[in-house]
Amino acid sequence: MGMIGLRDLRPNDVGGLADIWHASASLPGVGPPVLPSREAMRWRFEHELMPACRIIVAEQGGEAAGFAAMKLGERVLDQLFVRPGLLGSGVGRCLLDAVKREMPSGFTLFTRPTNPRACRFYEAAGLQILRREIHPRFGDPIVVYGWRPGA
């Protein structure tokens, strides 16, 4: 597979990263009950994520392998997605380690309880369950996790 590299977002990444986001969110239990279209997710990437987030791209073999989008001011990991064929390859861990470096005083995120793989991933990386609530946009259950250094 090759080394995993991290870099900042480039303008020509948008389509490929939106495709990764859509493909990953399409996996069973990952995305909302009714998944937005690929076009809608590309729009959200450009108009919601890019203006509000610091986005780090993971690359492997010259191709985008995943991304993390962080709202640094709010100390929130807004999105972390890995290309479905690369789950378990270390890309997610590499991105999460970068997020910890970007927000060293801690951060929160949420995922869906219907995505046990993500829950195990975050718990193995030292994140704690803070609370369970309802997704503000989609209305389905979510689990809110938090990470603090030394916790």
Structure characterization notes:
The longest helix has 15 residues, at 38-52. The chain has a 4-stranded antiparallel β-sheet, with helices on both faces. The chain has helices spanning 14-25, 38-52, 91-102, 116-124, and strands at residues 4-8, 54-60, 63-71, 76-82, 107-111, 128-134, 141-147. The model has no long low-confidence stretch (mean pLDDT 92). The relative contact order is 0.16. The chain has 151 residues and is α+β, with helices and mostly antiparallel strands. It has one domain: Gcn5-related N-acetyltransferase (GNAT) (Aminopeptidase, 3-Layer(aba) Sandwich), CATH 3.40.630.30. It is built from 4 helices and 7 strands. It is an enzyme of class 2 (transferase). Keywords: Acyltransferase, Transferase. Its EC number is 2.3.1.-. This is Putative acetyltransferase.
Indicate the topology.
Elements: E1 4-8, H1 14-25, H2 38-52, E2 54-60, E3 63-71, E4 76-82, H3 91-102, E5 107-111, H4 116-124, E6 128-134, E7 141-147
Pfam families: Acetyltransf_1 (PF00583)
EC number: 2.3.1.-
Keywords: Acyltransferase, Transferase
Which CATH architecture? 3-Layer(aba) Sandwich
Report, as a whole number of angstroms, the end-to-end distance. Answer: 33 Å
**CATH-wise, what's the superfamily?**
Gcn5-related N-acetyltransferase (GNAT)
> Mean pLDDT across all residues, rounded?
92
Would you count the extended β strands for me?
7
Spell the H/E element sequence.
Answer: EHHEEEHEHEE
Shape: globular
CA-based gyration radius? 14 Å
**How helical, in percent, are the residues?**
25-40%
Which fold does the CATH topology refer to? Aminopeptidase
How many separate domains make up the residues? Answer: 1
Indicate the CATH class: Alpha Beta
Query: Which strand order do you get reading across the main beta sheet?
Result: 1-2-3-4
Report the β-strand fraction as a percent range.
25-35%
Instruction: State the low-pLDDT regions, or none.
Output: none
The biggest sheet, with number of strands, parallel, antiparallel or mixed sense and barrel status, is: 4 strands, antiparallel
The assigned structural class equals alpha+beta
InterPro entries: Acyl_CoA_acyltransferase, GNAT_dom
GO molecular function: acyltransferase activity, transferring groups other than amino-acyl groups
Keywords: Acyltransferase, Transferase
Organism: Aureimonas phyllosphaerae
